[in-house]
């Protein structure tokens, strides 16, 4: 989390031409932390050099400036399981604009066939920056860097563009429980020139830290993901700042022509940390978290250069509770989930819903004697009749997916939709709306 002083820059640039083995031989007394830092700077730089041409070619069109045009009106229906931030607004002239956040081919459920991420039961925080004006820094965040709320052309969501190196955190997310899931979308501007650490999620000691905007590593778990070089690491420090856990790996970079945007999914179960980048599980560490520490989330941007570069984050969603699908459906007779996601105003299931559907499908196949009714629900945005129809179509889509993808007999599945008529939370907050947009499974 500490930034590297400028006098060390020359040494770091030389280190990028040295292999990991050479670094260790040349200075055997180097600490584990410094070795990790050198390995980042060397191998990540090599990965970027190999991939920057295709990165710039594939993602460059996203931020290509266009003629100004009138903003579109969003449909009145329930928007989606991931609430967009309202109509697409024109960005300031000095902010890169884009075609869309993801220009790749739409992913199918089968593309996520190994994705076993299951979101928590109850959404406790959902940040879509809908309450913030384009051009402002979001009111519910704090930072020692700079940034602004923007939109990307072709998408209705608002994004926070982090335009300077530093730390930032959501003030509304005061404490993370021992069981939670965190999801967020990310985009990086083209021409990434970065042999530092890139982007990071830091889970810091919320009770001990006097200032969350200082690079204090005490009782911290850091998840680092370099967007261009494929480098990722997890490091955990104890209260005395000694390293308790350190792991590094190299995955296919998410900043590529095929997938210029990335969805990050983090799953904590007590001490265990699981991390997914798009459909791939990149980390599963049994003892990353200290169960005695109350963690808070602090994001970090640490790019080599800052000019005309931004880290865009959006659709931050935190949910709590570890779903017990089998017990709730078989024993209690009802299972409700907010983890089945749909495209905006559509009954098309998003591929990141695969983990939830797979779990439900397994329970149904293992208990072949039961029948269930699938019931769709929406929030109260838009027209009542449209929301009712949408909820019914979404329930039918779930039925079809369970039958075609997981082999569940369609004769065991009934469907219905209730629209906005049965809310479980207030329709006045993003979190309440997210909990109302759900799919229920009722044992018949």
Question: How would you portray this structure in words?
Answer:
The chain is an alpha+beta fold and 444 residues long. It folds into 2 domains: 60-65 and 77-320, Exo-inulinase, domain 1 (Jelly Rolls, Sandwich); 325-443, OmpA-like domain (60s Ribosomal Protein L30, Chain: A, 2-Layer Sandwich). The protein is 21% helix and 27% strand. The chain has helices at residues 9-15, 20-26, 32-59, 325-331, 354-366, 384-406, 430-436, and strands at residues 122-127, 141-143, 147-151, 158-162, 166-170, 179-188, 198-205, 221-225, 231-237, 243-250, 261-269, 272-277, 280-285, 295-302, 311-320, 334-337, 372-376, 413-417, 439-443. The strands form 3 sheets. Strands 1, 3, 4, 6, 11, 12, 13 and 15 form an 8-stranded antiparallel sheet that branches. Strands 2-5-14-7-8-9-10 form a 7-stranded antiparallel sheet, covered by helices on one side. β3 and β4 (158-162) form a beta hairpin. α5 (354-366) packs across α6. The longest helix has 28 residues, at 32-59. The chain is globular, with a radius of gyration of 22 Å. The termini are far apart. 45% of the residues are buried.
The CATH architecture term of the largest domain is Sandwich
Q: Could you give me the name of the CATH homologous superfamily of the largest domain?
A: Exo-inulinase, domain 1
What's the helix count?
7
Mean of residue pLDDT? 76
What is the string of SSEs from the N terminus onward?
Answer: HHHEEEEEEEEEEEEEEEHEHEHEHE
| Anisotropy-based shape | globular
What is the C-level CATH assignment of the largest domain? Answer: Mainly Beta
The amount of beta strand, in percent, is 25-35%
Low-pLDDT segments: 1-106
Gyration radius, to the nearest Å? 22 Å
Main location: membrane
Organism: Spirosoma sordidisoli
Subcellular location: Cell outer membrane
InterPro entries: Bact_OuterMem_StrucFunc, OMP_bac, OmpA-like, OmpA-like_sf
């Amino acid at each position: 989390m500490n930034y590297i002083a400028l006098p060390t820059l020359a040494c770091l640039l030389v280190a990028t031409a040295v292999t990991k083995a050479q670094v260790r031989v040349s200075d055997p007394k180097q600490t584990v932390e410094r070795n990790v830092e050198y390995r980042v700077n060397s191998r990540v730089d090599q990965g970027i050099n190999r991939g920057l041409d295709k990165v710039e070619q594939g993602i460059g069109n996203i931020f290509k400036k266009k003629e100004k045009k009138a903003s579109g009106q969003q449909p009145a229906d329930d928007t989606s399981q991931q609430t967009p931030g309202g109509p697409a607004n024109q960005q300031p002239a000095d902010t890169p604009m884009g075609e869309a956040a993801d220009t790749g081919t739409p992913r199918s459920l089968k593309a996520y066939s190994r994705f076993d991420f299951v979101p928590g039961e109850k959404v406790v925080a959902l940040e879509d920056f809908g309450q913030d004006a384009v051009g402002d820094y979001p009111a519910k965040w704090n930072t020692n860097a700079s940034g602004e709320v923007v939109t990307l052309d072709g998408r209705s969501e608002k994004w926070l563009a982090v335009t300077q190196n530093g730390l930032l955190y959501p003030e509304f997310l005061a404490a993370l429980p021992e069981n939670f899931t965190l999801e967020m979308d990310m985009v990086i501007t083209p021409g990434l020139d970065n042999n530092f650490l890139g982007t990071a999620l830091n889970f810091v000691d919320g009770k001990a830290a006097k200032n969350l905007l200082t690079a204090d590593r005490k009782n911290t778990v850091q998840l680092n993901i370099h967007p261009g070089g494929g480098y990722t690491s997890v490091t955990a420090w104890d209260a005395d700042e000694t390293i308790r856990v350190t792991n590094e790996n190299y995955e296919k970079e998410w900043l590529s022509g095929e997938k210029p945007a990335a969805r990050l999914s983090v799953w904590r179960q007590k001490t265990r940390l699981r991390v997914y980048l798009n459909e791939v599980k990149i980390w599963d560490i049994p003892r990353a978290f200290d169960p005695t520490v109350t963690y808070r989330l602090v994001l970090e941007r640490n790019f080599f250069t800052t000019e005309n570069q931004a880290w865009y984050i959006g659709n931050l969603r935190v949910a709590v509770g570890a779903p017990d699908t089998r017990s709730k459906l078989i024993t209690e007779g009802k299972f409700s989930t907010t983890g089945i996601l749909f495209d905006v105003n559509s009954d098309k299931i998003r591929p990141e819903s695969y983990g939830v559907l797979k779990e439900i499908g397994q329970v149904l196949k293992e208990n072949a004697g039961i029948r269930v009714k699938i019931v769709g629900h929406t929030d109260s945005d838009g027209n009542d009749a449209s929301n009712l129809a949408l909820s019914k179509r979404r329930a039918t889509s779930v039925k079809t997916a369970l039958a075609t993808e997981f082999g569940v007999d369609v004769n065991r599945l009934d469907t219905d939709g209730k629209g906005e008529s049965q809310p479980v939370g207030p329709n006045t907050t993003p979190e309440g709306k997210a909990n109302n947009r759900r799919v229920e499974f009722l044992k018949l």
